[in-house]
Amino acid sequence: MKHGPIAIIDERMPVVIVVPRNESYEKVVSNLEEVQARSGKVIAATTDDCADLADQVDALIMMTQVADAFDVGPVAAARVSCGGAAGD
Q1: Strand extents, DSSP E, 1-88
Q2: Beta-bridge mates of residue 79
Q3: Do β-strands 59-63 and 78-82 pair in parallel, antiparallel, or remain unpaired?
Q4: How many structural domains are present in the chain?
Q5: Does a structural domain hold residue 73?
Q6: Domain interval for residue 65
Q7: What residues have CB less than 8 Å from 61, skipping those under 6 apart?
Q8: pLDDT in tens, the chain (88 residues)
């Protein structure tokens, strides 16, 4: 994340982050940690194989991975978890 967007993050700022389990995973998790360091509220949308993020975010949207025929990212029926374990 660049300095401009980071500067506006505070405890009242919800940030939605799509966390794919691919080559960009580590960079995305690093950005997630930057938001947390500024007390931002993190809402992560991810696939089942990234469920380990549940303890690191304020809300987790779990999606089932589907084929990326058009490389548009994961599209799925979502299970939303707020303030608890995934699937609550």
Answers
A1: 14-19, 41-47, 59-63, 78-82
A2: 62
A3: antiparallel
A4: 1
A5: yes
A6: 3-82
A7: 43, 44, 45, 46, 78, 79, 80, 81
A8: 667 788 888 888 889 988 888 888 889 889 889 999 999 999 998 887 666 788 889 998 888 776 655 455 554 444 455 555 444 4
Local structure of 61: helix, strand or coil: strand
DSSP state of 45: E
Give the burial class of 27: count Cβ atoms within 10 A of its Cβ; 0-12 exposed, 13-18 middle, 19 or more buried: exposed
Whether the CB-CB separation of 53 and 35 falls below 8 Å is answered with no
Residue 87 lies in a domain: no
Q: Enter the DSSP assignment of 85.
A: S
Radius of gyration of the chain (CA): 13
